[in-house]
Amino acid sequence: MFLEPEKNLAQFHIDPGMKVADMGAGVGYYAFLIAELVGPSGKVYALDVVKDLLEKLKSDAVARNLNNIEVVWCDLDEINGTTLHDYTVDRVVITNTLFQMENKDNFIKEAYRILKPKGKMMLVDWSDSYAGLGPTVGEVVKPDAARVLCEHSGFVFEKEISAGDHHYGFVFKKN
Fold it and tell me: In the chain, what is the straight-line distance between the N-terminal and C-terminal CA atoms, in Å?
């Protein structure tokens, strides 16, 4: 089973009015669902390094009348690379992105920086390489390594979520 955004988000507490960063938003699978969860009083920052994907996301958001999505073309694995201010968001969502980051440590630290105190981060990524699907064997960030990386950056492990047969999922909290 591959990612099921609705099921993953149902295990992560997002309320109307929240500000949420989708780090590595791609074409917006999660961003659109999050936009509906936070409603018109909330905001989604769709962050990605690939400009073409963000342009498609923005176009699709307009077509869906989702005016609470702000696309941000940025460098995700640099400190301050998102260009968001410190303590901007209530939640951070990271799905199938960690394995792609050149500087994974900075990527997680950037998530921590933009998150408000007591805010939460959901991290979902590939648990292995599957015969050409997902990352190569060398790119996979195993669950234990991901957890250590997040805790080393200041996050506190809250819970594991069911993310499908080929993925792992964690929720972390910022103190």
Answer: 33
Q: State how many domains the chain has.
A: 1
User: Nearest 5 degrees, angle CA 21-CA 26-CA 27?
Assistant: 110
**The two three-digit tokens of residue 129, written as one number:** 């390489």
Q: Which of 3, 61, 11 is nearest to 36 (CA)?
A: 61
Provide the residue range defining the domain that includes 49: 5-173
Instruction: Specify burial of residue 136 (Cβ count, 10 A radius: 0-12, 13-18, 19+).
Output: exposed
**Position 85: which residue type?**
H
DSSP state of 133: B
Residue 3 has pLDDT above 90, yes or no: no
- Residue identified by tokens 């990386």 is 149
Which residue type, as a one-letter code, is found at position 7? K
CATH code (residue 36): 3.40.50.150
Q: Please report which residue ranges of the chain form alpha helices under DSSP H.
A: 5-10, 29-38, 51-63, 104-114, 143-152
Confidence check: pLDDT of 81 > 90: yes
Q: What is the mean pLDDT of residues 15-31?
A: 97
Give the C-alpha separation, 93 to 37, whole Å. 13
